[in-house]
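Task: complex structure prediction.
Instruction: return C-alpha cells for all chains below.
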Amino acid sequence: TQLLEQSPQFLSIQEGENLTVYCNSSSVFSSLQWYRQEPGEGPVLLVTVVTGGEVKKLKRLTFQFGDARKDSSLHITAAQPGDTGLYLCAGRLEGTGGFKTIFGAGTRLFVKA
Amino acid sequence: DTGVSQDPRHKITKRGQNVTFRCDPISEHNRLYWYRQTLGQGPEFLTYFQNEAQLEKSRLLSDRFSAERPKGSFSTLEIQRTEQGDSAMYLCASSPGTGGTDTQYFGPGTRLTVL
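Output:
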C-alpha cells in the first residue's frame, strides 16, 4: 500500500512564528505537489518539485524535495493569519500500470493574530 | 481561461435520490480526474479520463457511481440511490496530460449532503 504521511496533522501557532510541515513516504515519486485548501474550496496549487534535493521558494514559503524523492517539507517563515488553511502534499507515482497521484491527509494550520 | 469549474457548488438530497455533478476542465487539458474528500482527509482518487476515455477507476467507485466525458471536454459524475455515506466534497481536477510533471489543477468542488 502506498501511503503519504503528513505531520503534524494540526498546528496552532502565533503570528510571526516559523513552522515546518513534513510529508513522508516509502515510495519514490516522479514529482510532488503542495496544495493549500480553504474550507469549502478546492485545493490550490502552491508548487511542484521534481528533482531530488530541489528547493523552491514562494515568498515566505520554502519547499524542499528529499534527495531520494520520497519526502518533502514545507517551511513557513513568520507565519501570518492569512496562512491559515489545510496544506496537502500529493505525490505522483509512475509505474508499469500507468501513473497515480496519492494525497496525504493534510496539515491543518491555524495562525493566531 | 478561468480554471476548472464545477456545478453545483452545494447539493442536498434525500437518501435514495440520484444526483449528477458537472465539471468543466481547463480548456487545453486532456486529463480530467474525480476525487472524493471527507472531513479531515486528503482527496481520494475515484477515476480519471484521458480525453473521452475513462482509463482508471478506483475500487471506491461502486456500481452506483458512473462518470462520463462524452466529447473529451466537460465531465459528469452521477451517483444513483445515494446513501448517507456518500456525503462528501467531490473534487474535479484537470491536467495537460503531457510533459513531465502533469500537475493537476482543482475546481472548487461540489459538497454533497445526503439526508
